[in-house]
């Protein structure tokens, strides 16, 4: 524990020493750079008088209010040299809106008319469990047990039509379709 504290104190001491050296060097360079600026001579920018003349002439200094207003004499710019190339003039509008939408192909006409199938009654959801006497029949749907007789309606959808020795006839009332439930 003491060894790690001593090494961290040495590390902190080195970091502080490096920080002080860095600050001293920064101040020294800053003081030296001010002297260099004074020794440099500034050259004045020049302007060309025409396209063919390569002799530079010095730019006249302007006040700040005149700096935004620049007047150019007419003889300084040769406007005949500023003509556009004929190939560039026929470019047209570069910002015309274009659509990359491709319409889908037209639907194929079927030769045969599609006739929807007539609705069918669902399969009988009941399982035959047994009988108590000659009138009472036990039917099961999932975990529900129904005690019915011939002529009864179950859930307002199924009606018991007949009870024969091997099968029970039920009618699906919405479609008036007869279905058979085997007792096996």
Structure, briefly:
By secondary structure, the protein is of the alpha+beta class. The protein is built from 3 helices and 9 strands; from the N terminus they run αββααβββββββ. Among the domains are: 31 residues, no CATH class; 56 residues.
**What are the segments in which pLDDT stays under 50 over at least 5 consecutive residues?**
35-40
Distance between the termini: 87 Å
SSE order in H/E notation? Answer: HEEHHEEEEEEE
Q: Rg, please?
A: 52 Å
Number of helices: 3
Keywords:
25% helix; four-stranded antiparallel β-sheet; alpha+beta; 3 helices; 184 residues; three-stranded antiparallel β-sheet
Structure write-up:
Helices cover 25% and strands 22% of the residues. The protein is of the alpha+beta class and 184 residues long. Among the domains are: 46-76, no CATH class; 127-182. It has a 4-stranded antiparallel beta sheet with strand order 6-7-8-9, with no helix packed on it. A 3-stranded antiparallel beta sheet has the order 3-4-5, with no helix packed on it. The two termini are 87 Å apart. The relative contact order is 0.06.
């Amino acid at each position: 524990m003491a060894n790690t504290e001593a090494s961290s104190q040495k590390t902190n001491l080195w970091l502080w020493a490096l920080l002080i050296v860095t600050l001293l060097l920064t101040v020294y360079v800053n003081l030296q750079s001010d002297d260099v600026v004074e020794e440099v001579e500034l050259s004045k920018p020049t302007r060309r008088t025409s396209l063919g003349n390569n002799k530079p002439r010095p730019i006249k200094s302007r006040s700040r209010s005149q700096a935004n207003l620049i007047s150019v004499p007419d003889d300084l710019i040769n406007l005949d040299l500023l003509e556009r190339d004929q190939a560039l003039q026929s470019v047209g509008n570069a910002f015309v809106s274009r659509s990359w939408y491709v319409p889908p192909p037209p639907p194929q006409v079927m030769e045969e008319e599609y006739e929807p199938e007539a609705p069918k009654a669902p399969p009988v959801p009941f399982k035959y469990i047994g009988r108590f006497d000659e009138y009472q029949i036990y039917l099961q749907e999932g975990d529900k047990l129904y005690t019915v007789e011939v002529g009864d309606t179950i859930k307002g959808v199924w009606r018991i039509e007949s009870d024969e020795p091997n099968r029970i006839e039920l009618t699906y009332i919405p479609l008036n379709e007869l279905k058979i439930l085997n007792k096996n």
